[in-house]
């Protein structure tokens, strides 16, 4: 079992992990490819890595010595990249952003050790052009009592639809940071952490820069490079790519549809349904809202905004304003390989499901489809939780989603029905035992029948008192056990899988860098199964 019961990855992902033939054929590379051959093919493809120099330029001012060393090697050897990325969730949330990044770093380190002829570079693609504010405006943590709390920034209506790299924090970020610190358990790390956060997250601060700085702090010393594809110089290098989307739009949609058909033929579900009227191209006209273009009678349009371009008009706009153009979920992987010599992309289960659709599109654009590496999947076990799991001999992978079912199951094991049965049996036999005792007393000395009866009832009264004390103590233990089991469940499945709910800041505040060090130490170079890591 690669994942616990409370996590249900899509079937295509599971087939990919097992390398089922019909699903493996949907991808450009096997799960365990011939790395030297693939590195040679990608580094030798002139159509890929068009912005490699911009990757170096964007990281050249890093104060991290490991990044500087990485760049120096990049200037000496052929470069291929291990890329990952994610929406820029507030305070680096949820946790799987961290696990994707660790996966990319560990794969790069493994390949650098095994293949010294190349420089394998872990790259985090900053998804600054995403415009889904609701997806990134909140962070969830466990408070001092272990209860799940959500902290959200206010809705930003005037900036609705704007890409995240155009957004800045407003005054409510100060209040949110204050409330967040009040909620979290004070530790030896809190003061330094929140001082660091205030240098990044403050009114007027750029969202992309804040996220970048936070991630750079988390992964200092790991040689991780960051790439901002929304940079104007990168967009200038992207003219040819976006021009191909415009001029080959029909063929591109056909390639997406072919990929979807192949997935259906493999008896799996398509993750992203192809919409024939979509152009799969975003336009932020005037650098404002991000608008999804559609196709209508040979034109590229956005009806709500009143936009209408012929193919030639859109190409002329691209020539003048390349920074206005951006990719969609299905074209982003293609763009990544166009800009960077992408050897492998580290993906989550849902991403792997839609990457399965893209092989025909990579072929259409003349790009080598990279290897797709499943990210690590982790549940962090805090000391108290790990201790309780061991005490009660609970397998965390078999914990159900329903907390009530989980608690009742373990309470039932502790009920001690034999105690209840013993006292019930005692009361059933009470009259018979009394008669037997009084008969024996009468044979010995009839004058003692009264004291004997009185002593018998006193003894029964004492046993009833003991029964009440035992039941009360059992209920107290049940209450304690209920609290302990609820704490375990809440820590492991806080409204869903921990890695999809909690933010990194919760563990930063409580454990400093120890939790990250433990992850790097315990996780293998590549994903094999869901891991439980004790902090």
From TrEMBL:
Bacillithiol biosynthesis BshC C-terminal coiled-coil domain: residues covered: 378-525
Domain Bacillithiol biosynthesis BshC N-terminal Rossmann-like per the UniProt entry, residue ranges: 8-375
Coiled-coil stretches: none
Gene Ontology molecular functions: ligase activity
Annotated InterPro entries: Bacillithiol_biosynth_BshC, CC_BshC, Rossmann-like_BshC
UniProt entry keywords in alphabetical sequence: Ligase
EC number, UniProt record: 6.-.-.-
Family: Belongs to the BshC family.
Protein name as it appears in the record: Putative cysteine ligase BshC
Biological source species: Caldithrix abyssi
Upper taxonomic lineage: Bacteria, Pseudomonadati, Calditrichota, Calditrichia, Calditrichales
Record gene name: bshC
């Amino acid at each position: 079992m690669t994942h616990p019961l409370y996590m249900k990855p899509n079937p295509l992902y599971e087939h990919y992990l097992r390398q089922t033939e019909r699903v493996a054929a949907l991808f450009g590379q096997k799960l365990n490819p011939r790395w030297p051959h693939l590195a040679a093919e990608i580094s030798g493809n002139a159509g890929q890595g068009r912005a490699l120099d911009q990757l170096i330029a964007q990281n050249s001012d890093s104060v991290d010595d490991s990044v500087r060393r990485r760049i120096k090697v990049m200037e000496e050897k052929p470069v291929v990249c291990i890329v990952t990325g994610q929406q820029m969730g507030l305070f680096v949330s949820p946790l799987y952003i961290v696990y994707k990044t660790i996966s990319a770093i560990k794969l790069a380190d493994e390949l650098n050790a095994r293949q010294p002829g190349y420089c394998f570079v872990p790259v985090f693609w900053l998804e600054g052009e995403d415009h889904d504010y609701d997806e990134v405006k909140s962070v969830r943590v466990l408070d001092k009592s272990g209860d799940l709390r959500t902290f959200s920034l206010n809705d930003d209506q005037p900036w609705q639809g704007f890409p995240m790299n155009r957004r800045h924090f407003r005054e409510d970020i100060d209040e949110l940071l204050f409330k967040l610190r009040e909620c979290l358990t004070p530790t030896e790390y809190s003061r330094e952490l929140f001082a660091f956060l205030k240098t990044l997250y403050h009114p007027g601060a750029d969202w992309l820069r804040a996220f970048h700085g936070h991630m750079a702090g988390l992964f200092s010393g790991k040689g991780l490079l960051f790439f901002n594809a929304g940079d104007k110089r990168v967009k200038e290098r992207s003219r040819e790519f976006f021009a191909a989307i415009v001029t080959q739009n029909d063929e591109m949609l056909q390639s997406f549809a072919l990929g979807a058909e192949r997935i259906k033929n493999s008896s799996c579900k398509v993750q992203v349904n192809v919409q024939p009227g979509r152009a799969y191209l975003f336009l932020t006209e005037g650098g404002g809202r991000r608008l999804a273009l559609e196709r209508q009678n040979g034109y590229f349009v956005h009806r709500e905004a009143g936009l209408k371009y012929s193919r030639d008009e859109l190409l002329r706009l691209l020539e003048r304003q390349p920074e206005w153009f951006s990719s969609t979920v299905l074209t982003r992987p293609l763009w990544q390989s166009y800009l960077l010599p992408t050897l492998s992309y580290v993906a989550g289960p849902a991403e792997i499901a839609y990457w399965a659709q893209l092989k025909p599109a990579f072929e259409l654009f003349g790009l080598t489809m990279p290897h797709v590496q499943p990210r690590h999947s982790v549940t962090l076990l805090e000391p108290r939780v790990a201790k309780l799991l061991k005490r009660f001999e609970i397998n965390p992978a078999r914990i159900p989603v329903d907390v009530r079912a989980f608690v009742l199951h373990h309470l039932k094991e502790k009920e001690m029905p034999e105690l209840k049965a013993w006292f019930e049996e005692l009361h059933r036999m009470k009259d018979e035992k009394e008669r037997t005792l009084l008969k024996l007393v009468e044979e010995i000395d009839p004058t003692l029948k009264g004291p004997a009866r009185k002593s018998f009832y006193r003894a029964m009264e004492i046993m009833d008192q003991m029964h009440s004390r035992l039941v009360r103590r059992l209920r107290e233990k049940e209450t304690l056990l209920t609290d302990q089991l609820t704490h375990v469940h809440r820590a492991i499945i806080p409204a869903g899988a921990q890695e999809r709910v909690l933010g990194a800041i919760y563990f930063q505040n409580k454990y400093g860098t120890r939790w990250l060090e433990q992850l790097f130490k315990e996780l293998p170079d590549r994903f094999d199964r869901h891991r439980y890591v004790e902090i």
